């Protein structure tokens, strides 16, 4: 038999027919066109090495006995094995099959090394029944269906393989099949890179999934998957999807670029992610759906527009999550370390700090009364008695600059000291941070801000702007409705304080029945008197190491007494603005002194108070 490359008919089958069971059959170099069917144990070897023998098939080759192929190229149709057949491929190519490239059913077993299955009009590799396969250093690509499809109780291991250019999934495991991928790359899939929709075992380790049209890795409903040290790059959809009822345990996973979320937890999904990194996502880095309860530990999120998108009823646990280069962070402040910047203070110290505030006598009385009720409630709980009814949400009604934010911050710390809330941090917000620009945008924005305040206080300034006069189709109504629902869902986890002008706040509370039932207590912040504003200025003077000269204090009081209390009057802000003006006028005055003394640099004079004539230029001393 010559080594000509001309097409031949029947020589390979002739060799098989004359071979004994278990024989090694060397096939001379050449191209052969015939129909193979292997019914006895045999080893087929390309006599002159890999690529020297091509066998063109019209129909799939039925492998009915243990078979080993070395260095052969099979084209036009694939290899099909069933029963308890053991098939081994080394340095082989299966290409151009009109249906499946290599298919196994029943209890068939495949071991493939350094082989390639490509350009097929079905699945590259299909396993069904109880079939098993172990592929090492192989390539599977250019398939019309999924490059690898598992069904039944099939079991597959891919080690350092490359799966590419499948029109559907790269690797898909269904029914009760098991999948293990160790190393290698899955790239260019028309759907998901890896789709695990199975009740069987799924372990992915050290592999890279790149450039998928949809999800990088999908953990389907009811599936449990372990994913370690994998990298998901440039997914067209979400990089890693954990679907309803699924569980994913991930360690050392890196997500770099995604057309949607980095990690998407659907409703009722579970998981534990540790030492993972997410960056470059078009949607929030992590989405946690309704009732999902993943643990996110030592997660680093960076270079994204938003870090977390957590739905109202989700219950994630965040431990050591870090963010950097994030435009909108919804991570709770204590998680970012903001609440740990100040040393914790005792309840008595916080009450003393409250009582040291200038003015606000009625506010201090109201807060003290609430503290007493909450102390009593805590004591009754300790004794096994039901606590008295309390409503911690408050309305702060007052003009600008009357200390509303300062009291809100102290109130949160007091509640934390009483054990009523977990952290006690303050999250300040307003209409601009809650209301979206288009339909469907407001509820996620409001939820994101609300989530930041969990365990602390959400302070909404100028809250009345959420219910503008006339109403209509303003998106503020959607923000209010979302807040009401979130307050109900998290009634024991957060305190909400709404603030604004007294008249406007009454209208705001009346705009929604849910608000009226949740905000039953209003604290009224009165305007500061002239003496109280002067005292604020005195505190600023001491803090910045200035002194008031003779008559300056009286000039300051006269200044505030002469001010018209119109809409733009800022109360405490006006006092701080006056102090800044005093220092500026003082600087202009001392600049004219050739050699100013220490008192010249420290003492503020009546002439520094606005309304007092500016002193004439002085001669240098």
From TrEMBL:
The superkingdom of the source organism is Bacteria
Residue span, AAA+ ATPase domain: 390-529
Q: Which GO terms describe its molecular function?
A: ATP binding; ATP hydrolysis activity
Stored SMART domains: AAA, PbH1
Q: Which UniProt keywords apply?
A: ATP-binding, Nucleotide-binding
Question: Pfam families annotated for this entry?
Answer: AAA, AAA_lid_6, Beta_helix
| Family (UniProt) | Belongs to the CbxX/CfxQ family.
Q: Which PANTHER family match?
A: AAA-TYPE ATPASE FAMILY PROTEIN / ANKYRIN REPEAT FAMILY PROTEIN, AAA-TYPE ATPASE FAMILY PROTEIN _ ANKYRIN REPEAT FAMILY PROTEIN
Tell me the protein's name: Right-handed parallel beta-helix repeat-containing protein
Ranked from the top, the taxonomy reads:
Bacteria, Bacillati, Actinomycetota, Actinomycetes, Catenulisporales
